[in-house]
Amino acid sequence: MKELRKKSLENIREEFPILHQKINGEDLVYLDNAASTQKPKAVINAIKDYYENDHSNVHRGVHTLSVRATEAYENAREKVSQFVNSPNKNQIIFTKGTTESINLIAGSLTNLIEKNDEILITAMEHHSNIVPWQELCKRTGAILKIIPINDNGEILIDKYTEMVTNKTKLVSVVHLSNTLGTINPIEEIIDTAKLNNAITVIDGAQSAGHLLVDVQELDCDFYLFSGHKVFGPTGIGVLYGKENILNQIDPYQFGGEMILKVTFDETTYNGLPHKFEAGTPNIAGAVGIGASIDFINSLDRELCHQYEMSLHDYALEKLEQFDDIRIIGKSSKKSAIISFVIDGIHPHDIGTIINQKGIAVRTGHHCTMPLMDFYGIPGTVRASFSIYNNHAEVDKLIDAIKLAIKMLKQ
Amino acid sequence: MISNLYKKQMIEMSNNPYHFGKPETIFAHKETLNPLCGDKITVYQSGANSSSIDLWFESVSCMICSASASILTKNSEGMTFNDGIEFMRQVEIALKDGTLMNHGFPEDLNCLEEINNYPSRITCATLPWSTAIELLK
Fold this sequence. Notes:
The complex is a heterodimer of chains A (410) and B (137).
Chain A: H1 2-14, E1 22-23, E2 26-27, E3 29-30, H2 41-54, H3 64-83, E4 92-95, H4 98-108, E5 118-122, H5 131-140, E6 143-147, H6 157-163, E7 168-174, H7 186-195, E8 199-203, H8 215-218, E9 222-226, E10 237-241, H9 243-248, E11 259-262, E12 267-269, H10 283-297, H11 301-319, E13 325-328, E14 337-342, H12 347-355, E15 359-360, E16 362-364, H13 369-375, E17 380-384, H14 391-408
Parallel strand pairs in A: 3-15, 5-6, 5-7, 7-8, 8-9
Antiparallel strand pairs in A: 1-2, 4-10, 9-10, 11-12, 13-14, 14-17, 16-17
Helix pairs in contact in A: 2-10, 3-10, 4-5, 11-14, 12-14
Chain B: H1 2-5, H2 8-15, E1 26-33, E2 40-46, E3 55-60, H3 63-76, H4 81-97, H5 122-136
Helix pairs in contact in B: 2-3, 3-5, 4-5
């Protein structure tokens, strides 16, 4: 596996300009990919090229630049649509990111959720898949219920099955946990929810860049992800939704772009996808995410996954040799994310010290505070891998952790 | 140099913090979360002394926060409330603007002199002080 990768490794790294720098005099080792991936030249250049040559406002303009900008924006929508195998590009709504996508759903579903209806989420959700539902429950009187997990960080699927009843109106689950790396059995979760006609929402923020997503095969009602975790820019995200539900729910924001006709007496809303894209959209962001999808499509995704997991397994083997390190998240089905705690040392102190060696990891609660409460810890150190990382960087991580432990346990 | 931030004195203070835990009687307390990381600190004014400052603390926090809290409880002990609040405000500002060594503060604070070079960690150091000010004012 390592040999296979070696040939293209240099080429892949070359495509990411940011990696070729020193931090505190050391080569940058970027292991914070679960927070945000770095950007290949193709994405950076696509955004630059758009602003240098094609920028104008989209839709309704008759001049050449507006036509070009509209084509670029709508072409990006088509690319996203194909990326997740949506039946129709009009079912792809551009948002600011996964958080806004979830807020859009939670904010628009008020007319479909009633008092005492139940909304199910898991114990491993990101705050962005907790708080919008709490707010929806406040507005409607619905009840938020939490699907439990075991110590390995796996959903207790039998408990989940018991929890889904005719009161369940919505199930919203993360596909791939940003903290634990757990890949959840969303096929089974969706099937069970559908037996009770519950709406299914899949938070794909972490998964879209690592796993193949086919929304028609999954048959979920909504699938959401962010551009910046799939090698694209920040500030652009995706909401895929089933057409019948998108047509049933109200717009999330109001203003230009989302209307067909406005008088002082009444307004007629536009059709999909524009109904949910009020105001001038993030055109350059859409161009960027389109380029990032082109980049991903140019890769052998199965090979990428195998390679990332080889880094994960190599790092895990080394971390498990430390007596005072505890791995958080040991699901049998995982992606290339490792969270861990070190006895007697706070994650922030580790993060600060290894940053002096040029190593970027994320420390803290990773926007999953209820999950931290479940494990009885304030936070973790999280190393998350991408295709441009290599085994030598894992060695540097391990050496830096040894140094930090020595320094702090003196 | 990272060892200038994680000085031996700082690590020792963090491992053996002064007035860590709840006092036997509590006059008042204030709990604060670090908005950057969710870490928690609770600062207590002991009920045994109503005329001067006698602070204790509990925290789930990093070394910098624990050491800073230890310095706070030790060096504010016995101050009048007005003097203590003024002292804490000066320290909080100095931690933020990097002038810790310019004020003639107690020597214990020297171990935090490097904090200004680590912007993402300044809140870790100031949290005990801002919490105590909120508690006492």
